Amino acid sequence: MRFTKIYAVPALALFTAVACGTSPGGDAPLDAGAGTMDAGALGDAGDGNPDGGAFDGASDAGFDGGAPDAVADSGVAADAAADGGTAQDAGNDASNDAGSQAFLPVGLAAVTVGTCALSVQGAVKCWGSESFGLEGPGFRGDAPGEMATLLPISLGVGVTRGRSCPPRRVARSRWLPNTSANRPKERRKSCDTRPQSPRRQTLGTMGDALPVVPVGAVRQVATNRHTCAVLADGTVKCWGKNEFGELGYGDKRARGGLAGEVLGLSAVDLGAGRKAQQVGVGAHHSCALLDNGSVKCWGNNTWGQLGYGNTTNLGDAPNEMGANLPAVDLGLGRTATAIAIGGGHSCALLDNKTIKCWGLNDRGAVGDGSTTNRGDGPNEMGANLPAVTLPPGRTALAVAASTDDQSASHTCALLDDGNVTCWGDNRDGELGLGSTATALSGNHATVALGTGRRASKIACGQWTTCALLDDNTMKCWGHNASGQLGQGSKTTLGDGPNELGDALPAIKL
């Protein structure tokens, strides 16, 4: 049985906890970070059969949290170097097996001012601003020695994050207004003007004191200022803020703040007979990947982020959902296998392993080589919407989008050779180029991950990017005022030369 626990971080960011077992192949229906939940949208990197979060059921050939052995590295498989680099896994390397105390990451999530990792044991560790569920004051990861002593989040007795439902979280700080004055200056290193006394996590609010959200059995959840969940039966329910109809109930009434509101939620109308494979949320809009490979979006449409060739908000009035809500035109014969929803833009990984994005493009997050918004006028979608240009000869296995700051978004792709390319806003080096130059497409040098290293999963925070590598280590780069890079400092990394690759240490978990 799966159930959902949710805790508050700065703003309405939420976190799912499930109690469920693993299945052969790691997916069925979601594997540990691949599929829908990791960085907002992963096409199950590695097996050539992108699952959008619900298909596959087979070994992921080395990309499934570093374990190609279909038993999730539980200490009983011959896993040859996937388990923390140890070649003999059959219970002999207890320091790295799932049954040990070692934290072996298999999933990751980057949020507004923090980062989280999911271990093969189902434990969750988070660092950055306000500790994200660690009771008590202060940042974590911004001072030497803090990462080595970082404790897992308390989700309650016997409760872990299940491998089948890895975390995806987005957040926004209540104590930091989203204004240009609060954006970090380019190349700023050890100083920051942001408050250094974050709001404390109230003691006694985690663990068994954290109530279960009464939405039923949950397959996947996405959250920002509002939250949407795909339930086990493929229906979608949403709650939280609703200024633009982003909840999809044909009105602007917020839900979830009163007793019994979540319990009594109806399913979002996706159309007769349609089920969702994945849901994603931006700052004020939502999108769902449906079981027929189509994508539908609703909510705020100021920049065309819904993809309908206009700027009309949808979902905020009656008769705008269901059969009246069209599918996004992805091109003749094209279907989506995964989606990634940014603060003001939307992206889809298509069945031909290309990526198309639309919406807010002031910093190039759409990746079409321009800074012109896409999807807000006629004749901009379908065949007229170009796929993101990737490095020559490369295709995409996954796409991730920064989900909060509408005017400073970036997007990243996990390529078929395990490299990572990013485009869009780069004021903090979040594109991993060793500079602060904006990139308007993905056709440039890939991120230096370290000698011989390749990525298996990616995640985009507001001004940061993180990758889970093939040796089960994590690296993050970009803004670091809260220690979200996990390096025991507040130094921004990736905005200058010689800061990435072998020069960037893996996060010590």
Mean pLDDT: 75
Strand line-up of the largest beta sheet:
2-3-4
Gyration radius, in Å: 20 Å
Helix content: under 10%
Oligomer: single chain
Q: In this structure, how is the largest beta sheet organized?
A: 3 strands, antiparallel
Order of helices and strands: EEEEEEEEEEEEEEEEEEEE
Number of strands: 20
Task: Look at the helices and sheets and give the structural class.
Answer: mainly beta
| Low-pLDDT regions | 1-100, 161-201
What would the principal axes of the Cα set say about the shape?
Answer: globular
- Enumerate how many helices there are, as a single number: 0
Distance between the termini: 29 Å
Q: How large a portion of the residues is in β-strands, by DSSP E?
A: 15-25%
What does this structure look like?
The chain is an all-beta fold. It contains no helices and 20 strands. It has strands at 4-5, 105-110, 114-119, 124-128, 212-213, 218-223, 226-231, 236-240, 276-281, 285-290, 295-299, 336-341, 345-350, 355-359, 396-401, 410-415, 420-424, 455-460, 464-469, 474-478. The strands form 7 sheets. Strands 2-3-4 form a 3-stranded antiparallel β-sheet, with no helix packed on it. Strands 6-7-8 form a 3-stranded antiparallel β-sheet, with no helix packed on it. Strands 9-10-11 form a 3-stranded antiparallel β-sheet, with no helix packed on it. The radius of gyration is 20 Å and the shape is globular. The protein starts with a strand and ends in a 31-residue tail after the last strand. Mean pLDDT is 75; it is low at 1-100 and 161-201.
